[in-house]
Write a structure and sequence with these properties.
Elements (H helix, E strand, L loop, with lengths): L7 E5 L3 H10 L4 E5 L2 H10 L1 E6 L4 E5 L4 E3 L10 E4 L6 H8 L9 E3 L6 H8 L5 E5 L4 E5 L2 E4 L5 E4 L8 H6 L4 E4 L2 H21 L3 H5 L2 H20 L15 H5 L3 H7 L13 H7 L10 H10 L5 H15 L6 H11 L6
Parallel strand pairs: 1-2, 1-6, 2-5, 3-10, 6-7, 7-8, 11-12
Antiparallel strand pairs: 3-4, 8-11, 9-10
Helix pairs in contact: 3-4, 6-8, 6-11, 6-13, 8-12, 8-14, 12-13, 13-14
The structure holds NADPH dihydro-nicotinamide-adenine-dinucleotide phosphate (NDP) and ketopantoate.
Length: 345
């Protein structure tokens, strides 16, 4: 196919996910990736983008093969826009895209958190704005070099406007699964993302963290609390792993050898992979904790229940944004047990 016949995709938010998607999709679409000047300059100095994954796939994509831009107007010619900024930046991005992108162009939020698509939708009437989900981890090891450290398929809200783009993702080796139940998918992803804060506080790779029972017990406390909050709010998370979401805390608490046997897929993570929240702390950036653990606390408050474990994780991450401290699993577990209201005997 001539390059001029390829669809144009704008990726708004040049970071870990944005850079990885740009590098993976570039052969089957004309990609424009829009981001901060410091990032775009660093990617140009790197000579383009490199991607690799845990199955050994890798490629160097030269700067002539992806358009790297700092000007939001570069999104004007896109046939599809993918939003890949952190949740706190969504409102600003929505305002920046309004009036720039062509009428009717679909916009997909490839972000964690429950409300990013709704924020974009409010500012972009006349566009199908669709929730998406990135299941795998991407680490930007050095500027311009992206490593996918775990598996899973990209998901998106089913919509006719995306018909021309499914083959692009498929041909690029990143199939996109259309889902009729994205609110349930995002709720299930939020449960998994409760580990982002624990991984950031642990300051160790995800695989090491999840291999140790006391870290998993911390996650089980946060997930069990979130599941109770979801039940109070009548939110049913989708089944994204071989285990039903309701079983996750019990399996996480199992001894290491049982956990390895029962949840081998949860441990199929590259040894270098860390959560995106760890990457934020490492780079001195504000984190997304208010859109993740903070979301559990807000839903709890709306439904007359409490979420002290997730509230404590929010506070600890905000403290870490100011000054980092490395926790041991035992110290964090004691801290999280300490905030729980004892249940009547
Ligand atoms: N990284 C991962 O492994 C995964 C991440 N996710 C989710 O994907 C989303 C993106 O995460 P990630 O890629 O890690 O984020 P990054 O912080 O790596 O990338 C986002 C980039 O967008 C930039 N940005 C913010 N606002 C604007 C703007 N108005 N115009 C241009 N650029 C802007 C940011 O700059 P600045 O820092 O200056 O704000 C940053 O460079 C998040 O919701 C995250 O939770 C989901 C699954 C996995
Ligand atoms: C893939 C996962 C769950 C963990 O890396 C993530 O979403 C993140 O880091 O933000």
């Amino acid at each position: 196919m001539s390059v001029h016949a390829l669809p144009r995709i704008a990726i708004y938010g040049a970071g870990s996910v944005g850079g990885y998607l740009a590098a993976r999709l570039h052969e089957h679409a004309r990609i424009t990736c829009i981001g901060r000047r410091r990032v775009i300059d660093a990617w140009r100095i790197h000579g383009g983008l490199d991607w690799s994954d845990l199955r050994g796939g890798h490629e160097h994509v030269a700067t002539r093969d992806v358009e790297l831009q700092v000007d939001p107007f570069a999104a004007a010619k896109a046939h599809l826009v993918l939003v890949t900024v952190k949740s706190a930046a969504t409102e600003t991005v929505a305002q920046e895209l309004a009036g720039i992108i062509a009428p009717g162009v679909p916009v997909v939020s490839f972000q964690n958190g429950l409300h990013n698509a709704a924020i974009l939708r409010d500012a972009l009437p006349g566009h199908p704005v669709l929730a998406g989900m990135v299941p795998f981890n991407v680490l930007q090891r050095i500027p311009g070099d992206f490593h996918q450290g775990s598996g899973g398929e990209l998901m998106v809200e089913a919509h006719d406007s995306l018909a021309a783009f499914f083959p692009v993702f498929e041909a690029s080796g990143l199939p996109l699964m259309a889902r009729p139940d994205m609110p349930a998918v995002l709720a299930a992803k939020l449960l998994l993302n409760l580990n982002n804060a624990i991984n950031a506080l642990a300051n160790v790779p995800l695989k090491d963290e999840l291999s140790q029972r006391d870290w998993r017990r911390c996650l089980a406390l946060a997930q069990r609390e979130a599941l109770a909050v979801f039940a109070a709010a009548q939110v049913q998370p989708a089944k994204l792993t071989p285990l039903r979401p309701q079983w996750l805390p019990r399996v996480l608490e199992m001894p290491d050898s049982w956990f390895r046997r029962l949840a081998s897929r949860l441990l199929a993570i590259d040894p270098v992979a860390r959560s995106s929240m760890w990457e934020d702390l490492e780079r001195g950036r504000p984190t997304e904790v208010d859109a993740i653990n903070g979301e559990v606390v807000r839903i709890a408050a709306r439904h007359g229940v409490t979420a002290p474990v997730n509230a404590r994780l929010v506070a600890l991450i905000h403290e870490a944004e100011q000054a980092r401290r490395t926790w041991s699993a035992q110290a964090l577990l004691a801290e999280l047990h300490g905030v729980q209201v004892p249940t009547a005997a």
